[in-house]
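Entry 14. Structure prediction run on the chain below.
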Amino acid sequence: MTIISRLNWIQPRKSYDIIKRLGDNLCNAERTRTLYRFRIPDQKIGTHENSVCPHVACKSLPPNPYINKCQVYEDGECWWTMNDRDLDPMSIHLHKSKTSLDCSGGPVQDDLWDMMITTSALEVGFDHPAVIGTFQYMSPMNIPGFVQRIGRGGRSPSDMPVAVVVLGSRPLDSFYFHHHTLLTNPSEDKLIIPIDPENRHIMAMHFTSFLYDFISTYGTVQDVDACYKYLNTQETKKFITERMNQFIQAANESFGLSEKEIREHLDIVVRYLDSCSEKLEPNRSDSSFIGNTRFIRDGKTVDEIIRYLSQAVARIEIEVSHDA
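Output returned:
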């Protein structure tokens, strides 16, 4: 799980239950019970909210055991860094399933939050300039993913990001507790993503994504709009065909494939792009598009579904003719 916040962000590991319970507890502590008031540095900011504040001289300097000793501060029960603006409860958002909720459980559309609790949904591509710290709850699934998560914080060159890992009691948590340098200073071999290059399904997905990355890198705004925004499959095919040598070179550098292998993968993509441009004619059972999408669902094949729809249309036509 991950919590993200302007100051910190916690990420749970894809557990909606953990997010819900943690979010409810934090919302209750912040907005209902206002527990943060028990750690307000009264002496520093001139308030009278904290009944346990000993009011030692700490307005200009944090409590120090040799100059202005404060046992409350040393016990961690005084947040000396708090300012006047911190006297209001935090705005907490819970993000899951592409939806952000506030403490009341209602959907939110704004970006005015102090802390966001989320699953790994925001692990990649979430670049919010206000996020300084991240909190990882429980051990990460893998080290590359963990690096991605803590990379969400401190995006500005002037930031000093903070990353905190809260471990549990599972064997994997114990492992990372005793081998914490795997997280704080991983070697290059630990950052390699374990992907089997011989897996044709993975290669198909990566190759297709690479093809569109190639278009966005070397194409004009008009090219990108045609291929991405308007899904013009013929323009996509034309763009790659006209830059075939450049594409082969780029694919070779990225995947280490031979020209023959690249052309074989590209032929599969091109055949699919061509099939998307075919007109769908009910009477053409040999349509390659129908062939590419043939499936069985609930015991019915595509042919049976087409036959059922044709019979339904015929019944409607008969009923209309009788009414006329």
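The chain is about 45% helix and 10% strand.
Filed with the rest of this week's runs.
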